Amino acid sequence: MEELRIERRLIMTPGPVGIDPRVSQAMSSSILGQFDPDFTNIMNQTMEMIRASFMTKNKWSFPIDGTSRAGIEAVIASIVKPGDKVLVPIIGRFGQLLVELAERAGGEVHTIQRPMGEVFDQAEIIAALDEIQPKVLALVHGETSTGRMQPMDQLGKACKERGVFSVVDAVATYLGTVIPVDEWELDAVIGGAQKCLSIPSGITPITFNDRFAEEINKRKRVESGIRTAEDEADNPFITSNYLDLTQLQDYWSERRLNHHTEATVMMYALYQGLRLALEEGVEKRAQRHEYHHTALKKALKALGLTIYSDNHHEMKMVTCVEIPENLDGEAFRSGLLKEYGVEIASSFGALHGKIWRIGTMGYVVQKMNIVTFVTIFSAYLVNSGVKGLDPNAALRTLLTYYEKESY
């Protein structure tokens, strides 16, 4: 076998993204045992940083070892038992994922849906809560398949008033915009690693409040091999062992239940990524994402492209652009990656082949990267035969914006 060689890439997708070299350096540190006091100290500090990143005082703020989907499934599988009503407002592909996970947990799933590229008025969702009376409201904050951000500052309070548990997939928006969990009174929120936090996929920060914890602990069952006389085996228990939040609570607290072996290197990455994000500041980091998102949009418009669903509750870390007519979008993407090492994303379902999704997330969100991207992307479009484009105007617009505007 050949030695592993990875070519340099400029990843402009909605995840995964490039990571800060300081994260890579942290991941090369020596391995510690999972109950080594030095390592448990890292665990405790990581919990503190997760709280700060979500703007919450929730005790239960810790990572799930696994990709973002593991984090979402851990929360859904722990709160939803067979027969529970779950309401899922769908604005794109990842709302459908919440349906899938809730159904697999045995939930009775009810959906409301908006056309691709649109979001719900919060009053519509609250009206559905009154009509369906679910146990759980599960929804996506940043729907990367369409580039939309669902408003939800009123939904946590509405759920609490009705005895409903709110579950929010904030995988794509976490640390790319401000998500004040306590202010919005959200019960459980799942963040993401490989997007705006800008660390490798494989560990997922989550947070949930005491109200949520009390409910899931009604189904707590410690596995038999480590169960003590004090541990009750309630039924119906949470069916997943690995993704059982109640056992993970014991792992991430003073008891240090021997549930699984912690992903040491990924913990180093999460610690360092959170440290860098909080050093920058949650609000300042959000401003940086919006600043460069605006720069890219202005450049693409000046180039002559059309922004999909422009200014309609758009995410500030994903730009969706309509694929020019008579251009094979997938062949273009493939060529852009193969010839120039630049990667962008297509979309799903009804939008596949109609839009490209360009991510401006985390470490990649720098002037140098945006200017490099616009230069290569514009020239390659022209060389691919797209008519009516003006690469010079795109670059002038971008550079003028950067010279005159700041954040």
UniProtKB/TrEMBL annotation:
<feature type="binding site">
    <location>
        <position position="357"/>
    </location>
    <ligand>
        <name>substrate</name>
    </ligand>
</feature>
<dbReference type="GO" id="GO:0008453">
    <property type="term" value="F:alanine-glyoxylate transaminase activity"/>
</dbReference>
<dbReference type="GO" id="GO:0004760">
    <property type="term" value="F:L-serine-pyruvate transaminase activity"/>
</dbReference>
<comment type="similarity">
    <text>Belongs to the class-V pyridoxal-phosphate-dependent aminotransferase family.</text>
</comment>
<keyword id="KW-0808">Transferase</keyword>
<dbReference type="Pfam" id="PF00266">
    <property type="entry name" value="Aminotran_5"/>
</dbReference>
<protein>
    <recommendedName>
        <fullName>Aminotransferase class V domain-containing protein</fullName>
    </recommendedName>
</protein>
<dbReference type="InterPro" id="IPR015424">
    <property type="entry name" value="PyrdxlP-dep_Trfase"/>
</dbReference>
<dbReference type="InterPro" id="IPR015421">
    <property type="entry name" value="PyrdxlP-dep_Trfase_major"/>
</dbReference>
<dbReference type="InterPro" id="IPR000192">
    <property type="entry name" value="Aminotrans_V_dom"/>
</dbReference>
<feature type="modified residue" description="N6-(pyridoxal phosphate)lysine">
    <location>
        <position position="195"/>
    </location>
</feature>
<feature type="domain" description="Aminotransferase class V">
    <location>
        <begin position="33"/>
        <end position="346"/>
    </location>
</feature>
<keyword id="KW-0032">Aminotransferase</keyword>
<dbReference type="GO" id="GO:0019265">
    <property type="term" value="P:glycine biosynthetic process, by transamination of glyoxylate"/>
</dbReference>
<keyword id="KW-0663">Pyridoxal phosphate</keyword>
<dbReference type="InterPro" id="IPR020578">
    <property type="entry name" value="Aminotrans_V_PyrdxlP_BS"/>
</dbReference>
<dbReference type="InterPro" id="IPR015422">
    <property type="entry name" value="PyrdxlP-dep_Trfase_small"/>
</dbReference>
<dbReference type="InterPro" id="IPR024169">
    <property type="entry name" value="SP_NH2Trfase/AEP_transaminase"/>
</dbReference>
